[in-house]
Amino acid sequence: MIKRILFLVVVASLFLAACAPAAPTPEPKKVWTYPDMTVGFLQTGSEGGWRAANTASFKETAAQLGLNLKFYDSQNDLAKQVAGFQQFIQDPEVDVIVMSPLEVTGWDQVLADAQAAGKPVILSDRRIDGNEDKYVTFIGADFVEEGRKAGTAMCELLKDSPSKNVWELQGNVGAAPAIDRGTGFRETAEKCGITVTNTQTANWSITEGKAVTEAWLKQSKDVQGIFGQNDEMAFGAIEALKEAGLVPAQDVKVISVDATSGAFQAMLDGTLNGAIECNPLLAPQVYEAALAALNGETLPKWIPSQESQFFMTDPNLKEVAAGRKY
Ligand code: GYE
């Protein structure tokens, strides 16, 4: 009797198993490739040589990799950049959002919205405050270190100078490079007795760099060094010094950050003492990170870019200048 019942139970379970719908075979996990990917890129604007090289890096590399790039020019307007961000969150074609943030704050809400929409966000070129849990990674320079390098260079240039008054031309207010380069510069410059006696934003521009320096020169010519937080503002200061009858790089030492081709020309002309490099060719690393993020990989929160520094006294400056990509 028990044998009969056991046999019936086995037959019944085999029958039920045969009738039960087959377990759905799990969808094979999508492996993203560059041609599959649409990147929404929020650029700051078009404020000079560095930015032009950075934008070209994104457009050219996208074409080479065959990925779809939606390029948004924020025209150096934070409200426009936030609006563009929201647009990319809503845009069903956009898979990953890349942003070069104009300022370090103002991103909490849109980052939370992007996260809720399942869209990975990558910061390119500039960091923001906090929110590490809401973006994949930041790919860009150590701006504090760039500032430190500029301070150390200015100390060397002014080592025999009885007074060390330096004027600083800052980038746009609230921008990571403006805040951090200033912090780094003071960290090293103050160690050799440099005093920053004037500091003001000149919004990364030649025109404003010249106008701000002219205004300061009208008040006083007691300046031994000018720190331009980018090449363009330093070029403006150089023009203002010349027009005030001062010899740039001799009467007043000038150091900039970026090291674009214009800076090399100024060093070869003998009007710029040195340029701390900031690499604009970030697109290959950014797209690689975007693809990795879509394929579920975890990335370090910061992927620093590699950078150097150059001086008008460098013996091989001409050869180096000839080989530059930007
Ligand atoms: O130094 C300046 C540009 O974010 C690092 O922005 C970039 C800075 C660069 O306007 O030239």
Question: What are the SSEs and their pairings?
Answer:
Elements: H1 2-19, E1 38-43, H2 49-65, E2 68-73, H3 78-90, E3 96-99, H4 108-116, E4 121-125, E5 137-140, H5 143-157, E6 165-170, H6 176-189, E7 195-201, H7 206-219, E8 225-228, H8 231-243, E9 253-258, H9 261-269, E10 274-277, H10 283-294, E11 302-304, E12 309-311, H11 317-322
Parallel strand pairs: 1-2, 1-3, 3-4, 4-5, 5-11, 6-7, 6-8, 8-9, 9-10
Antiparallel strand pairs: 10-12
The structure holds beta-D-fucofuranose.
Beta-D-fucofuranose binds at residues 47-48, 50-51, 125-126, 177, 204, 230, 257-258, 278.
Give structural notes.
This protein has eleven helices and twelve strands. The chain has 326 residues and is of the alpha/beta class. The strands form two sheets. A six-stranded parallel β-sheet has the order 2-1-3-4-5-11, with helices on both faces. Strands 7-6-8-9-10-12 form a six-stranded mixed β-sheet, with helices on both faces. α6 links the parallel β6 (165-170) and β7 (195-201). α5 packs parallel to α6. The termini are far apart. The site of beta-D-fucofuranose has 12 residues, from α2 and β9.
